[in-house]
Each structure stands twice: as structure tokens, then as C-alpha cells.
């Protein structure tokens, strides 16, 4: 059984007695910084000079300083900047200011797991990874409930890294919902696998394949969009609330029969073999090496694929149909 910690297992005083730097003020950064401040923690936000987020953070009542200054002042540093920028920022603005007794924290284990950041032996290294987007995490904190978090300790130099990690988790509301104990490797590998095989890559390709199959068969693109894209949220919401059983309970018997009849024809042994290959590439570091190299080259393949995907027919049809449904609060990127 998994080990899960709650409020009773964490001492908030441990983080209230320390100076915390939150690096970054994006989706996760703003939620961490504001919730820690509400929990009585001495927080400063570290941003680069000229950051668009600087004014936003100050307007929200937070103290903002350059990244290097934040790291020099703090004895707990939470790194919440994009994975691909962390190694450079670490070398330039974090590593020079680390001292014995400090805690280096992450919201995701990528750079530790794949050796892009190698902290000195005299600091604690831990992780608090919320299982929700930052804006939802913040909303739930304000409502008095919390978001589940994954917690891990990679390096315990002080002998009390776990206690401090759980104190931080409590400060952002994670122990209200539950803090599940994991490792940097498990969090990183499962997170990348989930994104690639199911949540982003798998679902995106499944939706497009269904849409294309209907359109190529002569059905209206607009109808294909509703069936393969629009209604996905309805099904996911049922999963979210009650799992597969609740989804099957909620849909028609015909839909449930279709689930059993066709599901394994679509996600078959070939699909499962491909998933295992994806996981093996993640575990070996091959995927990380490829992604790091792509960034070093200026992201030529990534940027080309992003541009091409935005021109897919399902995206063009979807833009027009969503404008017919203002209650969705449609957005354009």
C-alpha cells in the first residue's frame, strides 16, 4: 500500500521558521508562493529582470527579487521554472549560493532523474509535485481544501529532509488532501509516460484518428468534431468523479457495449507493445537525451510540429464551432 501523509503528519512550524525562494511565477509558481505566504511563510519570488510576471507577483502582494538574490537570501529554494531552463539557471544563479543546511526543492523530478542538475552533498533535495494545474491548486487552497501531492526525498543531508518536505507540502495545502510518498525516478518516469502515452500524446492521436476516419468516410467534419473531440470532456468528467465504473453506469447500455466490443480492437497488443517501448525510452534516458538535444538546437523539429498541428482540420473546425458555444468560455492561442 502507498504511504500517504496528512496534516497531522506535518509540522508547519518547520517551514515557517525558514526563508523560502520560489523560482518562477507561472501556473505552479504563483500557487506555491501565494499559498505559502498565506500559511505564514517568509516567501520571496525569484524572477529574471524584465519578466512579464514581475508586476503580477508584486500586485498579488509578494516580494519579488532577481533569481540570484532570492537564492542567496533563502535556505529553501523551490525550482518551478520550465524543465529545459533549470540546468542553466541552476549553474548561474542557484549553485553559487547553496550552503550546508539548505534545501533544494523541485515540483518535478526531470533534472535530478536525468542528471542535468547534480546538487552538492551538503544540501537536502526533495520534491513536492501537485497533481493539479496551479490555478486549480490555488483555488482549492483558498476554499480550505487541498490538492493531492507527490512527495519525495532524493538526498537527506540534514537528517530531517522528510520533515521539512512535509512541512512545505502542508504550507501549500497538499497534506489536506494527501501527500503520497514516491521517489524522483518514479514521479518522473510515470509523469512522462502518462503525458506521452495517455494524457497528451495518446488522447490527441486517438481524437485525430477518430475525426479523420469519419471525415474520410464522408461524414461532416463538424459532426465528427462533436463526436470525437467535444464529447471527450463529458466522458473524462465521469472518469474523474467515479472511475471507469461510474462512466459505464452513466452512459447508455449501447455505449457501454460499444466500450467492451471495440475498445480492445483500438488499444490492442500492438498499442501495448508501443507503450512499453515508450516507457523503455523514458527509463533508459533516451527520451530525455533527445529532448535536451532538441532544445540545445533551438527546437527546430518541435517548433515545426507545433505549427503543423495547429493547422490540422480538427483545429480549424473546432475554432468555428466553439464560437457557437460561448458558455464554454472558448479561447484562441
The share of residues in helices is 55-70%
As residue ranges, the low-confidence spans are none
How many angstroms does the end-to-end distance come to? 42 Å
Oligomer class: single chain
| Order of helix and strand elements from N to C terminus | EHEHEHEHEHEHEHEHHEHHHHHHHHH
Trace the largest sheet across and list its strands.
1-9-8-7-6-5-2-3-4
Mean pLDDT score: 97
Q: Largest sheet at a glance?
A: 9 strands, mixed
Q: What is the 3D shape?
A: globular
Structure description:
This protein is an alpha/beta fold. The protein contains 18 helices and 9 strands. A 9-stranded mixed β-sheet has the order 1-9-8-7-6-5-2-3-4. The mean pLDDT is 97.
Name its key features:
333 residues; 9-stranded mixed sheet; 13% strand
SSE blueprint and pairings:
Layout: E1 4-5, H1 13-16, E2 19-23, H2 27-38, E3 42-47, H3 53-59, E4 63-66, H4 67-73, E5 76-79, H5 83-94, E6 103-106, H6 110-113, E7 124-130, H7 134-142, E8 149-155, H8 161-171, H9 174-177, E9 179-181, H10 184-199, H11 201-216, H12 221-230, H13 232-250, H14 253-266, H15 269-284, H16 286-296, H17 300-310, H18 313-323
Parallel strand pairs: 2-3, 2-5, 3-4, 5-6, 6-7, 8-9
Antiparallel strand pairs: 1-9, 7-8
Amino acid at each position: 500500500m502507498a504511504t500517504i501523509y496528512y496534516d497531522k503528519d506535518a509540522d508547519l512550524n518547520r517551514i515557517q521558521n525558514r526563508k523560502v525562494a520560489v523560482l518562477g511565477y507561472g501556473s505552479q509558481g504563483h500557487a506555491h508562493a501565494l499559498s505559502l505566504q498565506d500559511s505564514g511563510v517568509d516567501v520571496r519570488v525569484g524572477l529574471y529582470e524584465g519578466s512579464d510576471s514581475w508586476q503580477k507577483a508584486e500586485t498579488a502582494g509578494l516580494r519579488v527579487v532577481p533569481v540570484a538574490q532570492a537564492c542567496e537570501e533563502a535556505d529553501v529554494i523551490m525550482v518551478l521554472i520550465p524543465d529545459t531552463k533549470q540546468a542553466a539557471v541552476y549553474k548561474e544563479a542557484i549553485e553559487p549560493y547553496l550552503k550546508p543546511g539548505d534545501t533544494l526543492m523541485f515540483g518535478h523530478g526531470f533534472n535530478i532523474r536525468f542528471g542535468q542538475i547534480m546538487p552538492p552533498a551538503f544540501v537536502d533535495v526533495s520534491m513536492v509535485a501537485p497533481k493539479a494545474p496551479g490555478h486549480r491548486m490555488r483555488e482549492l487552497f483558498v476554499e480550505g481544501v487541498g490538492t493531492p501531492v507527490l512527495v519525495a526525498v532524493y538526498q537527506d543531508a540534514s537528517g530531517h529532509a522528510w520533515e521539512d518536505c512535509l512541512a512545505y507540502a502542508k504550507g501549500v495545502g497538499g497534506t489536506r488532501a494527501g501527500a503520497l510518498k514516491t521517489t524522483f525516478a518514479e514521479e518522473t518516469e510515470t509523469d512522462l509516460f502518462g503525458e506521452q502515452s495517455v494524457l497528451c500524446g495518446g488522447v490527441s492521436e486517438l481524437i485525430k484518428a477518430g475525426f479523420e476516419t469519419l471525415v474520410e468516410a464522408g461524414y461532416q467534419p463538424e459532426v465528427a468534431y462533436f463526436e470525437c473531440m467535444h464529447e471527450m470532456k463529458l466522458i473524462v468528467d465521469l472518469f474523474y468523479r467515479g472511475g471507469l465504473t461510474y462512466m459505464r453506469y452513466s452512459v447508455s447500455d449501447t455505449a457501454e457495449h460499444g466500450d467492451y466490443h471495440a475498445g480492445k480492437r483500438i488499444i490492442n497488443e500492438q498499442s501495448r507493445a508501443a507503450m512499453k517501448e515508450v516507457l523503455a525510452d523514458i527509463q533508459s534516458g533516451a527520451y530525455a537525451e533527445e529532448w535536451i538535444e532538441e532544445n540545445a538546437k533551438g527546437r527546430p523539429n518541435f517548433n515545426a510540429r507545433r505549427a503543423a498541428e495547429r493547422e490540422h482540420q480538427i483545429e480549424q473546425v473546432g475554432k468555428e464551432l466553439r464560437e457557437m458555444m460561448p458558455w464554454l468560455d472558448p479561447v484562441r492561442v
